[in-house]
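Batch job 17 of 40 flagged for manual review because the log was empty.
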Amino acid sequence: MKVVQVLPTLNGGGVEKGTLEIAKGLVGSGHESIVISAGGGMTAQLEAEGSRHATWDLGKKSPLTFRHVRALRRWLLQEKPDILHLRSRMPAWVCWLAWKGLHESQRPRLVTTVHGLYSVSRYSAIMCRGERVIAVSNTVCDYIRESYPHTDMDKVRIVYRGIDPGEFSQGYHPSDEWLGQWYLQYPQLKGKKVLTLPGRLTRLKGHHDFIGLIKQLRDSGQPVHGLIVGGEDPKRKAYAQEIRKRIAKEGLGDSILLTGARRDIREVFAVSDLVLSLSTKPESFGRTVVEALSMGVPVIGYDHGGVGEVLGQLYPQGRVPLANSDALYGAVIKNLNTVQSQPRNDRFLLSEMVRQTLDCYLELAQ
């Protein structure tokens, strides 16, 4: 098969990571892999792993982006891919119009992936127009069914995001060099129970709930230290400042650290006693939850959306009702002070994600 995947850029993130994983899986299985994007920091890795990159800037939400439709249609006629896989809304509109303008005998088979719980609109509905529609969780499948009732659910395939157990391995231990640098940078973490909240500094990630939790724990004499691991959103500088002011107001400057964005999240999880997932809006999947659990690190999270779904399958005792501070505190205390069964991930595996996605392609191509 020749498969073309389309997304806005290759600058990092869950969608981008999944695109590279499928591209590598295609090449490893003897297929031809092409990715269309505006480029970015992951392009070199993509090409090094055997895929071809075609530079098209299809992600800008502007009427001018539709000027690419005719040229893209000609490109599809020239390349003759078997599968066209659309992973983001704006590029999906451009590609769908190019695809629709081809004679049926000249069209590649069309696959879309619904990666998120998008706002319900005609704009988002494009992600349900594939001949196969991949949902990244049961949560997303339910969202499609309820939000876009005209979608033929027989075309929907649930393909969970998957983690490489070799990368996020059970009991992983960071190198002595990394540990030395970590404790040189953050000496205040020594001898403390470390609670980590990963995620960008945006309002929906539950930072205020996390700050309230750390205050409760510290006031009750628990030797804990909170880590907020995530970069600031350039468009939401005021929110980052709000978080810092709240930490100072609560007198928690010596109990909560903001590390900023880090590329060593595996190592950070390894030195964490507990990982939290406190998004106030349901997520489509919850990749960081699976990564931590795959390493045997307990996760406590709100029981809704993809996070509740993952915890229900891998670590049910980690589920707490949404925004229930007492239940959250109780679950954390129980995990910190009593022996719990060690989590394992035998469900959300990269190999399964790749196999099921390629099966979806083959099903259409044949």
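Reviewer: the log was empty due to a logging misconfiguration, but the result itself is present. The CA atoms of residues 194 and 272 lie 5 Å apart. Unflagging and moving on to job 18.
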